[in-house]
């Protein structure tokens, strides 16, 4: 490998509060433009900000969840720049004194290994408004400003440049999103802009310690685009270096349709923003009691839950990882296992397979899924008791998707009880043997795979109700 890729991510996560960071205006999205505004978030002269305590609490909880240092003293600063959707002409953020210092998270790599990704800081800040270009609403040549988002609370989570490729960046993003959703401090909805990502990427000769010149790719809004943008930028920078050129430090934008990054502006340094302490807000002074009270509210986090699932339920680490990647999927699984604790692995197979498949098809979250978790557990119990076969269970599941009835009720209503009477199955097997002399002779001549065809014919003749194990056993016995 000629070059080593060095990646750091800056994540902007919208904090899940009902009101904005410095005023009482609603943070609800999708409302009429400029309807959730007031003199404070509009930047009117004389309007003074008041800090939303819940933003402070949620940021501290996030810091605790990533084993970070919580700074008892932190201070807001003015970040000065001019843009149409920034009504004050500056953004209230934190600079020299952030509320959260050094922390880390552990990511899982495709080869089964793990890696520690350092987090430099988390600070609180307000979001800007939104510029709407007329071409997107049928009015080319015009631009509009919606300030409903101005003042929405954000956490900016800044990683160290510890990632070495798109796979690691994606794993970091997924892990961080999972933690934020477990904490319920952000909904992390990338489509609505409540989780946005800036990618800092540079290349350096393999083995070199000194970092290369970085480019920043702004406002990525999907995990897939983050990966594609990194791959493109790696190739772009490598080509420049191979041709003897130098990388320019700049801010770039990613065009997903063309799959390219394009130059936006030269990269600003901190001094370009003329940071200075925010005079209208007092510093945030935390006490040990304040921090300790929030420690007690932390939920079981994904890594701890994954480890518990492996130990408590005896399922593979892979299964536990899939289930625990979403807090509510993990909760659903545990409710399903309560209904049939003796086969936790089979329950995990159904949740990871059919349940998640249907959710993906419907584009739903598990909270919108209308089959009670206990019904999944009960259905697996019916398979284990041989009341129904695995194949019949697939049919029962589809019926539950149409109307979430108890699986026992569905089996009775639809006449789906598995046939386990040996005499009845023997009669069906004999009919199949008599009707298929060719395959029978092939099997008796040593062609073992023909048995699968005969099993299928028997299951078809029994309308899927015959016990598959008994069908296999009787076919072998009756064919000699």
From TrEMBL:
Transmembrane segments: none annotated. InterPro entries: Asn/Gln-tRNA_amidoTrfase_suB/E (IPR017959), Asn/Gln-tRNA_Trfase_suB/E_cat (IPR006075), Asn/Gln_amidotransferase (IPR018027), Asn/Gln_tRNA_amidoTrase-B-like (IPR003789), GatB (IPR004413), GatB_C_1 (IPR042114), GatB_Yqey_C_2 (IPR023168), Gln-tRNA_amidoTrfase_suB_CS (IPR017958). Belongs to the GatB/GatE family. GatB subfamily. Its EC number is 6.3.5.-. The gene is gatB. GO terms for molecular function: ATP binding; glutaminyl-tRNA synthase (glutamine-hydrolyzing) activity; transferase activity. This is Aspartyl/glutamyl-tRNA(Asn/Gln) amidotransferase subunit B. It comes from the Bacteria. Residues 331-479 form the Asn/Gln amidotransferase domain. Allows the formation of correctly charged Asn-tRNA(Asn) or Gln-tRNA(Gln) through the transamidation of misacylated Asp-tRNA(Asn) or Glu-tRNA(Gln) in organisms which lack either or both of asparaginyl-tRNA or glutaminyl-tRNA synthetases. The reaction takes place in the presence of glutamine and ATP through an activated phospho-Asp-tRNA(Asn) or phospho-Glu-tRNA(Gln). The keyword Protein biosynthesis applies. Heterotrimer of A, B and C subunits. Keywords: ATP-binding, Ligase, Nucleotide-binding, Protein biosynthesis, Transferase. It catalyses: L-glutamyl-tRNA(Gln) + L-glutamine + ATP + H2O = L-glutaminyl-tRNA(Gln) + L-glutamate + ADP + phosphate + H(+); L-aspartyl-tRNA(Asn) + L-glutamine + ATP + H2O = L-asparaginyl-tRNA(Asn) + L-glutamate + ADP + phosphate + 2 H(+). GO terms for biological process: glutaminyl-tRNAGln biosynthesis via transamidation; translation. PROSITE patterns: GATB.
């Amino acid at each position: 490998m000629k070059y080593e890729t060095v990646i750091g991510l800056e994540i902007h996560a919208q904090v899940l509060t009902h009101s904005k960071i410095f005023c009482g205006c609603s943070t609800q999205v999708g409302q009429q433009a400029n309807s959730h505004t007031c003199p404070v978030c509009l930047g009117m002269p004389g309007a003074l900000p008041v800090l939303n305590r819940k933003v402070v609490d949620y940021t501290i909880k996030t810091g605790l969840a990533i084993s970070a240092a919580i700074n008892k003293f932190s201070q807001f600063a003015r970040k000065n720049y001019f843009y149409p959707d920034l009504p004050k002409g500056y953004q209230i953020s934190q600079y020299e004194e952030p509320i959260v210092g050094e922390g880390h998270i552990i990511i899982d790599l495709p080869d089964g290994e793990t890696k520690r990704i350092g987090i430099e800081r988390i600070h609180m800040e307000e979001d800007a408004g939104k510029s709407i270009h007329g071409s997107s609403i049928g009015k080319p040549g015009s631009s509009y400003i919606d300030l409903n988002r101005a003042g929405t609370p954000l956490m900016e989570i800044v990683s160290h440049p510890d990632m070495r490729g798109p796979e690691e960046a994606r794993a970091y993003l997924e892990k961080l999103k999972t933690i934020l959703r477990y904490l319920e401090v952000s909904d992390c909805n990338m489509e609505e802009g409540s989780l946005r990502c800036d990618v800092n990427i540079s290349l350096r000769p393999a083995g070199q310690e000194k970092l290369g010149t970085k480019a920043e790719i702004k406002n990525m809004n999907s995990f897939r685009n983050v990966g594609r943008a990194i791959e493109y930028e790696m190739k772009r920078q490598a080509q420049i270096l191979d041709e003897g050129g130098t990388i320019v430090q700049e801010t770039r934008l990613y065009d997903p349709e063309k799959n390219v990054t394009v130059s936006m502006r030269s990269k600003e340094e901190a001094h370009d923003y003329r940071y200075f302490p925010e005079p209208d807000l007092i510093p945030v002074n935390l006490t040990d009691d304040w921090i300790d009270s929030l420690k007690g509210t932390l939920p079981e986090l994904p890594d701890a839950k994954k480890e518990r699932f492996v130990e408590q339920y005896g399922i593979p680490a892979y299964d536990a990882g899939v289930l625990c990647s979403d807090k509510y999927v993990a909760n659903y699984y545990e409710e399903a296992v309560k209904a049939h604790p003796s086969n936790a692995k089979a329950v995990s197979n159904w949740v990871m397979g059919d349940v998640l498949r249907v959710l993906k098809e419907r584009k739903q979250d598990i909270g919108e899924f209308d089959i009670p978790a206990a019904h999944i557990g009960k259905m697996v119990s019916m398979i284990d008791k041989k009341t129904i076969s695995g194949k019949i269970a697939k049919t029962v599941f589809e019926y539950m998707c149409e109307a979430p009835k108890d699986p026992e009720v569905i089996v009775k209503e639809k006449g789906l009880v598995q046939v386990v009477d040996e005499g009845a199955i023997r009669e069906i097997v004999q009919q199949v043997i008599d009707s298929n002399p060719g395959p029978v002779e092939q099997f008796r001549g040593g062609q073992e795979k023909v048995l699968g065809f005969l099993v299928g014919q028997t299951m078809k003749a029994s309308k899927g109700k015959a016990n598959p194990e008994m069908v296999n056993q009787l076919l072998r016995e009756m064919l000699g």
